[in-house]
Amino acid sequence: QANVVESGGGLVQPGGSLRLSCVASISPFNIYNVGWYRQAPGKQREFVAHTLTRGNTAYADSVQARFTISRDNAKNTVYLQMNNLKPEDTAVYYCNVRISLDQPGDWGPGTQVTVSS
Predict the structure, then answer these.
(1) Contact at 8 Å (CB) between 62 and 78?
(2) Across the chain, how many H-helices and E-strands are there?
(3) Three-state SS string across 63-80, please?
(4) Which residues sit opposite 21 in a β-bridge?
């Protein structure tokens, strides 16, 4: 089981930016698919973005063109750059790592993102 830790959350005003980081104690890191998910109060956890081993990326429609996912395999780290944040982006953001997309994978404890004026 991988140890997954997210960081970078915080309080930001609407229109602001944050960069989340996900570090996982797995090797080799480049064979893992890594995804970001979020869960707002009273709502189910939802997909935000992922980066696959082949380099493909995908985003939820709600964050397309505002969020960018990237990975640094040498640092076992995946980043989520979030720009033009909106109040509806407020949630706990979780990182998931898995070798195959049909596996549940391993989750981190999450990092809180709050967008409010």
Answers:
(1) no
(2) 0, 11
(3) CCCCEEEEEEHHHCEEEE
(4) 7, 79
* Mean pLDDT (whole number) for 8-24: 98
Assess whether pLDDT exceeds 90 at residue 71. yes
**Assigned token pair, 8:** 């970078």
Question: With 90 as the cut, is the pLDDT of residue 106 above it?
Answer: yes
Return the pLDDT at 4. 96
Cα end-to-end distance, the chain, whole Å: 39
Share of the chain above pLDDT 70, in %: 100
Q: Which residues contact 36 (CB under 8 A, 6 or more apart)?
A: 20, 22, 48, 49, 50, 69, 78, 80, 93, 94, 95, 96
H helical segments located in 50-116: none
Strand partners of residue 71: 78
Amino acid of residue 60:
A
Q: Does residue 73 contact residue 97 with C-beta atoms inside 8 Å? A: no
Q: How far are the Cα atoms of 13, 80, 84 from residue 87, in angstroms, in the given order?
A: 8, 17, 10
